[in-house]
Design brief:
Elements (H helix, E strand, L loop, with lengths): L1 H31 L12 H15 L10 E5 L9 E5 H16 L16 E3 L2 E3 L1
Antiparallel strand pairs: 1-2, 3-4
Length: 129
């Protein structure tokens, strides 16, 4: 029994000695280390979809020659664009595909949208509600 106690005491002393050495090494290395280059964290698939969504809307012409050239798009992806709107038909189709990707990837936006009625119209060459 005495040998067991001695062994445990020896292990405890060795462990605390190692802990002190590691703490000393950490503090010395933290003092001498220079900050490395800032690296960007890789974006998530959801971030990529939102970026493409925003880019698509930013480039949207929204121009038309008739009501048929306009279409509604659902939102709920980007807080800046709320719960949807009206744009040109080609952009609306692209946004619908991105919306499907967003939901398929189980992304969350924090935007809660209720159902809404949309009747797109071409007013003075620009798509409108």
């Amino acid at each position: 029994m005495t040998r067991v106690r001695l062994l445990l005491v020896a292990i405890g002393v060795a462990s605390s000695s190692c802990a002190r050495e590691n703490a000393t090494e950490k503090s010395v290395s933290q003092e001498t280390k220079k900050p490395g280059p800032v690296t960007e964290t890789p974006s998530s698939p959801c971030d990529d979809i939102v970026a493409r969504w925003k880019s698509t809307l930013a480039k949207a012409a929204g121009s038309c020659t008739s009501d048929e050239g306009c279409a509604c798009f659902n939102g709920g992806i980007d807080e800046g664009h709320g719960c949807g709107g009206v744009t040109d038909d080609a952009t609306a189709k692209t946004l619908e595909k991105l919306s499907g990707e967003f939901r398929g990837a189980k992304c969350k936006s924090g935007v809660a949208c209720a159902a809404w009625a949309c009747t797109p119209k071409c007013v003075s060459g620009h798509c409108s509600k």
